[in-house]
Amino acid sequence: MSNDAPTFDPAVERAIATVRADVARLHGELVRYGLIVWTGGNVSGRVPGADLFVIKPSGVSYDDLTPENMILCDLDGAVIPGTPGSERSPSSDTAAHAYVYRHMPAVGGVVHTHSTYAVAWAARGEEIPCVITAMADEFGGPIPIGPFAIIGDDSIGRGIVETLSGHRSRAVLMQNHGPFTIGSDAKDAVKAAVMVEDVARTVHLAREAGPLIPIPQSAIDSLFDRYQNVYGQSEDTRR
Ligand SMILES: [Zn+2]
């Protein structure tokens, strides 16, 4: 580490170390569940108690991701100089993650993949209807479509925030692109990324074979309420 490394409060240093380890390890879940190819996909996690988050470096093989080469950024997406990993570029989606952390204070984790079935719905610009109880449990309704947006400015982040603010779903399918998920922490956002691909695949297969049967809104509401409360998930990211 170079001499210009910033010094953080010891509690913040411990939090950074924990989030670095979590974010590095959670990328393995994207591989395990078949959500990514090559170096695609990215997980980030907010550092509790600081205006910082940790994200994957750009273009590094999944086999080579370690806590030390994860990249520490401020909430504008700028790399903190002198910290481990800072010699590399962060994920090309860093600006979108940063925008979400700036505008959704309860969000502690963000994940992006190009998982196959979720991208297929995104390519049609079609929301995934809520036709299975597991989807009502996890997402409380349909998985919405976000606007078409090109990488390079705030438009992807803005599209995510505008679509998910006030929505029960922790997942958005950005049109012609793919899923972004949010959660109370990085692990919760990874869970949403796994679940959104699972429901995208199941509902796709169901529709291939025949018409979908809607679930009444009152039943969706009670399933969501029960799962979110009985199973003790934190309310803080539910809007
Ligand atoms: Zn992408």
UniProtKB/TrEMBL annotation:
Its cofactor is Zn(2+). Coiled coil: none annotated. One of its GO terms (molecular function) is aldehyde-lyase activity. Its EC number is 5.1.3.4. It comes from the Bacteria. Signal peptide: none annotated. The keyword Chaperone does not apply. PANTHER family: FUCULOSE PHOSPHATE ALDOLASE, L-RIBULOSE-5-PHOSPHATE 4-EPIMERASE SGBE. This is L-ribulose-5-phosphate 4-epimerase. It comes from Microbacterium oxydans. The gene is ulaF.
